[in-house]
Amino acid sequence: MESKRLAPTPPMGWMTWNFFADKIHEQDLREMADAMVASGMVEAGYNYLIIDDGWQGGRDNRNNIIADPKKFPSGIKALADYVHSKGIKLGIYSDAAQLTCAGYTGSLGFEEQDAKTFASWGIDYLKYDYCYAPKDSAIAVARYTKMGEALRKSGRDIVFGVCEWGQLQPWHWALNAGGQLWRSTFDVRDKWRNLDKRHPDQAGYGILDIVDINADLHAYAGPGRWNDADMLVVGLYGKPGPSGDLGGVGMNDMQYQSQMSLWSVMASPLTATNDVRNMNEATKRILLNKEVIAVNQDPLGKQAERKVKDDTWNVFVKPLQNGDMAVAILNRGDAAKNYSIDWANLGLNGKYEVRDLWEHKTVGKGKGWKGLVQPHETKLFRLKKI
User: What is the pTM of this model?
Assistant: First the structure.
């Protein structure tokens, strides 16, 4: 019997790592769940709260993985029950080795046992990392497949996020290993671009670096299979911690808005990492833009194709289920510039009504568009045939 498709649209939620690193506590997560509801995040579609690395307290005398009793005195199941009562699903983290990236207990050799434990707690999502594991494709495939099968047998629907950082091209194998999404790059940092092209993994990936990898993978995405461009850094403003490492100096709101636009047209999961309890108006405006989210969550499940690619301009086109087209125009340059485009050059013939999804209004009708694009701005349009 075919089980229902998990993650028919890109998962949306909030993850602990960039804000808390491994300094997590159940009380903070309850507050975050409350804030996700109060701020409108849940209503907008952010329905996963994902505990990243650092929750583990080792194994008990039967080798069952347990939560750190200081961080989770009530246990994970109690947290899952609380989060579920708010209409939010709970995600958790492990690693395909004996240790996780932050040095906690991993799941290698205990896949079935851990999957059953996660299911018994009420877990809905697993992020499965690849630190301290061999850089060998066959071993990676075997380890992810083992956990994928364990999750399928666990008796609970658990979305499986493959976090191997794209080095072994998971878009070719992660779906068959049981994954619904797979990271395409190393971790995102809170910055626009990496200036050290020779050692990108050591210097940290900015928004443009991830776009340039993820943009070429559109053929591999679709309902239940997503290229994960990593977490949103919107609203972090250079906060010290994981996203602030390796040159993550922070960005301005226009750059954060661009990340939201680009992740949405690329059908990437949208995983916020800012302090939802304390959001300024700009951060709320970016993360809660329902028209932009609708592009990301469109049921057709197409990832945009990059049709224009040069040093200054990128133009992405994403077909939508009702026949509309989403078009994103990115100014990669450091100065405001005028841009003019004929829709026919993107393969879109005829006349269109153009709605600006950040301005929430119609900004033109006809066979093209021209206008000023600010440095690092991404114009995001929805085109309706007229």
Answer: 0.97
